Amino acid sequence: MIDPLNTLPDLSKKERYNKKNKIAVALSGGIDSTAAAILLKEAGCEVVGLFMQLYDSSLNIPPFLKACFGPSEPEKIEHTRLICKALGIPLYLIDLRKDFREYVIGYFRNEYLSGKTPNPCIRCNLKIKFELLPKKAKERGIEFDLFATGHHARLGKIGDRYILKKGYDNSKDQSYFLYALVQEQLSSVTFPVGDYKKERLRSMVSSLGLGIEKRKESQDFISEGSYSVLFREPEIKEGPIMDRWGKRLGTHKGIIYYTVGQRKGLGISSSRPFYVIEIDAKNNTIIVGHKEDLFSDGLIAGNINLITMEKMDSTVRAKVKIRQQHKGAKATLYPMGDRIRVIFDEPQLAVTPGQSAVFYSQDVVLGGGIIELPIKGE
Q1: What is the CATH number of the domain that holds 277?
Q2: Are strands 22-26 and 161-166 parallel, antiparallel or unpaired?
Q3: What is the pTM of this model?
């Protein structure tokens, strides 16, 4: 049986934008957003660049160019100015520092302190990049018809409903990070690079002669290992590392340094490796077990956002990704009011509270939610 969702054509350039459109592009100084601006210019659109100012200098974060948040922001602004000059488009800096600290860093801190492992990129996309960036730009009098980003994703449409699809370059697909976008946001956005392979984009930006194609891409929220600066010293407390039966095996240095599935850095000597299988924030305890203890039969997800439908009234078959690098696992989705119960066809490794479970039908994003707890023993 053919799934009609997966026969939907992508929204063509003609359907999405034309020479009459004025389009604002979120620029970062990197390959993908630069390529998005180039493609829109080539389509004859009037293009303006927007740069999100996020970094709060009161946070003592080590410089790390691959991170999207940190003290290297002035360098990225300068890179972006050069790009806009080469393309002949204006650049506007949009100050979102206060908002980022409240909606992303605040969320990140609270989740870690409650023993979860959050995904700040999903939160940033939903609240900062796709909501407050275009909103604050328009409040400054910067008019535009559509908002564009350099995400590897595509759009479709069925009736009046916009559909989110994987990017053409499956190795670079970023639809996982966009599942939380609502219809209002999807209706006003375009993803110019979603139809291209990364190497084609790299070649495209090399034509500017700015060396953009040689720059390291932003792959981390913050400098590696430095997110502890986001926490106050009294919040990071040592505590016990226990096995499943309550036997103390060691001492952890603070629950913010651990995540489900972690093996390294536990400081436990054993003939068999131990892994973090649970974080008990209430008792400031890390619980460990062996690899077989990491498998779960399913999960409960909350904070659900559905894209292809307004609500889920019956069970749905889908492929579920439980983190960005996860290949996805076949599963059945069971509606539970404002939550969804996911049961995998085969047990999955390291289902992690705080991460997102995203539901797919082939290359179409059905929706997703935040993992609240794993299900074991189904």
Answers
A1: 2.30.30.280
A2: unpaired
A3: 0.92
